[in-house]
Amino acid sequence: MEERIWFKAGNWPEEIPKHLEYPENFPIYKFLEESAETDPNNVAPVFFDTKISYKALWEKVLRFADSLQKLGIKRGDRIGIYLPNCPQFVIAFFAINRLGATIVPFNTQYVDHELEYQINDSGARTIICIDITYGRVRKLRDKKIKDLDNVIVASLHDEISFSKRVLGILFAKLPPRKRIRSGDYSFKEMVEKGDPSKVPDVEINPKEDLALIQYTGGTTGVSKGAMLTNYNIVSNQIQLTSLMYPPINHGKECYVCALPLFHIFSLNCIMISAISQASKIILLTDPLAGKPMLQDLLETLSKYKPTFFHAVPSLYVGLLFHKDIKDYDLTSIRACLSGAAPLPEQVMYNFEELTGANVVEGYGLTETSPVTHVNPLAGGGKRAGSIGFPIPDTDVKIFDPSEGKANIELPQGGETQNEGEIGMKGPQVFGGYWNKPEENKNIFNNDGYFLTGDIGYIDPDGYFFITGRKKNMIDVSGLKVYPREVEEELFEHPAVQEVAIVGIPHTFKGETVKAFVVLRDNETASEEELIEFCKGRIARYKIPRHVEFLDELPKSAIGKVLHRELRDGEWRKAGRKKSIDG
After folding, report:
1. Nearest residue to 296 via CA among 257, 333, 262, 269
2. What is the domain range of residue 497?
3. Taking the CB of the first residue and of the last residue of the chain, which one, N or C, has fewer CB atoms within 10 A?
4. What does the alpha-carbon distance between residue 400 and residue 365 come to, in Å, rounded to a whole number?
């Protein structure tokens, strides 16, 4: 990789290597196997205060792997995991990987047709579900998916103590156990009956064999399965570890996993990170739980004293506005990576003031395992509003976003701050979408750069800034408006807690700008006040012409604001349709 501007500008932290070595024969499960060998008595997952050691976790993985192979599961088979955050997710993930099969994580919030589509698209013939969603899976198999051979059912009851089960049921935090029908399998029994000595050796090719078919969120239309190899995931984990500062204290870290493990950010940046470091991971099934909302998460952070708390902006915002936040000690947190959505500057500063942690914004995609950019944790070089620098061995360019110009690179760090589509190469970048041969022809340019669909620029110091989605741009009389810029300005208003900007139809201008706003508790603001607030801060054509106040913004399971849902509603009301996929 040529020396790009982020190296030449002298802002790359001395503590962070520019290039790393990535093993070519190292499947993901090796992280757990090695941690079980080096630190067998360290606590791995903690669930409802029940702790499992690394030795015990690895044995459960091998036992479950043996039972899976007795069902006929082999290398290359696709296995669906339809589980919330729980120890069974961790066990299933590593057991499937140990057999060389492919994991297909399903969003636990999916309704029938969404789950049906991804099961059929992936070709998964075995699914591991929680008993809470067992009825949905049975209904789909009985009526629509005839070739779903194996249904394996886990229960949250199986991995927590008797006293916690009783309390969980009494306080409605734990649903009653569901009975498993004849012909289906109990996860618990499969672990108990498996023989760890009988797991076959499987020859896995990490660069070729798919570890994951990781579906995109589906918030922009039909979801697509990103094909991620063992090498992609392991490489990104090595990249992530190199970025942590102070350096990782192997075996001594603690992560709180408040994001759903079916999402790649949580899966790699939290679960696999913790396990590769033989460190503790606290699993939460619902970070919003408790009265008031987020109370359980707040108590968990205070009780377990995590060193890392990676999350999305909506969680940081929610904690900051919790009425009792100042009564809890969160100063154990050393570092926080924020991803999946833009992090407002004020949220970053306020959370740092509250915890003393170093909070940095990063960037990535499902297709990149996921991380490609992070603000430096070392050297004090982070820049608010920026996603930072590309991580080691990730080559990124800005391309002309015009149709047919995907190979024209725009200048780096020019004074005009040339905005264009971000394209990238790196060991963590996927090979394409499952069952999408025609689309795969268009997502890489002639030089092999993955075209992300995100628009951004590189400043003269080499920092990257995201200004919006290529197909999310708002076109006001031919002038481009990127939602993030307007959202950042409105977020500065003292009454605004959350904001989403979309383009709505306009008879003469094509589109105009509308803001959807959630106000802080006990605060008021009018449409006129917020429009006036933007004047003089941004160009006139970027100022919202309409403001609608909501109690909450629609969000995905990971906490990403669903701009498309808001926008589509406006276009439907106008009796029109804007065809986008961004």
Report:
1. 257
2. 473-573
3. N
4. 20
Is 573 in a helix, a strand, or coil? Answer: helix
End-to-end CA distance of the chain: 29
| CATH for 500 | 3.30.300.30
Q: What is the average pLDDT value for the chain, to the nearest integer?
A: 89
Give the pLDDT of residue 58: 98
Q: What are phi and psi of 65, to 5 degrees?
A: -60, -40
Six-digit token pair at 267?
């899966």
- Specify the range with the lowest mean pLDDT, choosing from 37-51, 101-115, 123-137, 397-411: 397-411
Question: DSSP per residue over 45-104, as a string?
Answer: EEETTEEEEHHHHHHHHHHHHHHHHHTT--TT-EEEEE--SSHHHHHHHHHHHHTT-EEE
pLDDT attached to residue 435: 94
Taking alpha carbons only, the member of 70, 77, 102, 91 closest to residue 200 is 70
Q: Is residue 76 part of a domain?
A: yes
According to the model, what pLDDT value does residue 110 have? 81
CB-CB contact of 285 with 266 (8 Å): no
Interstrand relation of 371-374 and 389-390 (parallel, antiparallel or unpaired): antiparallel
Proportion of the chain above pLDDT 90, given as a percent: 63
* Helical (H) or strand (E) element with 34: helix 29-38
- The SS3 call for residue 531 is helix
Give the number of other Cβ atoms within 10 Å of residue 428's Cβ: 31
**477-481: average pLDDT:** 69
Query: Whole-angstrom Cα distance, residue 571 to residue 171?
Result: 43
How far CA 102 is from CA of 92, 127, 225, 227, 372, in Å, comes to 11, 12, 12, 10, 23
pLDDT of residue 219: 40
Is residue 362 in some structural domain?
no
Sign of the alpha-carbon dihedral angle for 493, 497, 502, 506? negative
Strand ranges inside 434-524, DSSP E? 450-458, 464-469, 474-476, 479-481, 496-506, 510-519
The string of DSSP letters for 532-544 reads HHHBTTB-GGGS-
